[in-house]
Structure formats: structure tokens, C-alpha cells
Amino acid sequence: MSSHRKFILCLFLFVAMLSQVKAQSGTEASPKAAAIIAAMKNSENDWNTGNLDNFMKMYTDSSTMMYPTGPVGLSTIRNLYQTKYFNGKMPKQNLHYSEMKVTMLGENYALLTGKFTLSGNSLPERSGVYSLVMVYTKDGWKILHDHSG
Questions:
Q1: Is 10 exposed, middle or buried (0-12, 13-18, 19+ CB in 10 A)?
Q2: What angle do CA 67, 68, 69 make, to 5 degrees?
Q3: 66 forms bridges with which residues in the sheet?
Q4: Residues 117 and 127 sit within 8 Å (Cβ to Cβ)
Q5: Rounded to two decimals, what is the model's pTM?
Q6: Residue 52 in contact with residue 44, Cβ under 8 Å?
Q7: Domain segments of the chain as ranges
Q8: DSSP the chain
Q9: Which strands form 94-104's sheet, in the order they lie side by side?
Q10: pLDDT tens across the length of the chain (149 residues)
């Protein structure tokens, strides 16, 4: 076999090996991404059924949300939802998450981006985008930082 053919064969095998390694690393993140998306869908359901307490369990005790004035803590986040988006025990509008994309930032951290839509109850539909820094805890994936707009 000529050295040119040996080189082509080695190059082909190298590319095939790299493709396999890339595929394996992609599948490792897949169950984590699925768990994050499932947690968000559960929180969507909690919101829509009026269970603000369970919806808030998606946040850690040290979670922050970006406000125009800077980051705020958990009590301010809850107060925002309770006063602006709920009428007593029920939400003013239904929540729907879409276009969710998970980017792993390490073993126990991820970036979740997507779109939210609030609709229903004869109110104008509102939608926006979000980016969430997620952290894996003993209780599953939680929101560490929320930047919604």
C-alpha cells in the first residue's frame, strides 16, 4: 500500500474516532438536558394549576433574578410572581415554555435558554426570552440565576 493511501486511511480512521468521541460526549449530556427540561415542564404545570409554592421550589434558597437595578433574592422573586402574575391562588394567565436549549457548563451546572408565553383569561398574550443558570442539587435541577425579559 502506498504511503499516500496509508495516510488517507489513517486520516479516515482518526476522523471516525473523533466522531465517535463527540457522539459519546453528546449523549452524556442528553439525560441531564432531559431532566432539566422535565423539571421546567413540571414547574409550568405547577404555575398553571396555581401551586406557586411548588413552582418556587425550582429556585434554590440562594437564587437570584436580574432586575433593572441588579440581582434580587428569593423573597423578591416570590413577591413579584405573587403580586404581578397571580390573583390570589391562581395565575392571571397560563405559562408555557418553548424553544428550550440546554448547554452544559460542567458536571453540575447548565445554561437553559428558551421562550416563555403567558396567555389566556382575556388578557393580551405576553412572551419573552429567558436564560437560566441551573445547578444540580440533592433535590434535582434548580434555578440558580434567572434572567427573564
A1: exposed
A2: 85
A3: 71
A4: yes
A5: 0.78
A6: no
A7: 29-148
A8: --HHHHHHHHHHHHHHHHHHHHHHHHHHHHHHHHHHHHHHHHHHHHHHTT-HHHHHTTEEEEEEEEETTEEE-HHHHHHHIIIIIEETTEESSEEEEEEEEEEE-SSSEEEEEEEEEEEETTEEEEEEEEEEEEEEETTEEEEEEEEE-
A9: 70-72, 59-67, 140-148, 123-137, 109-120, 94-104
A10: 555 444 443 334 343 443 333 333 344 448 999 999 999 999 999 999 999 999 999 999 999 999 999 999 999 999 999 999 999 999 999 999 999 999 999 999 999 999 999 999 999 999 999 999 999 999 999 999 999 97
Encoded amino acid at 78, one letter:
R
Q: Which fold, 29-148? A: Nuclear Transport Factor 2; Chain: A, (3.10.450)
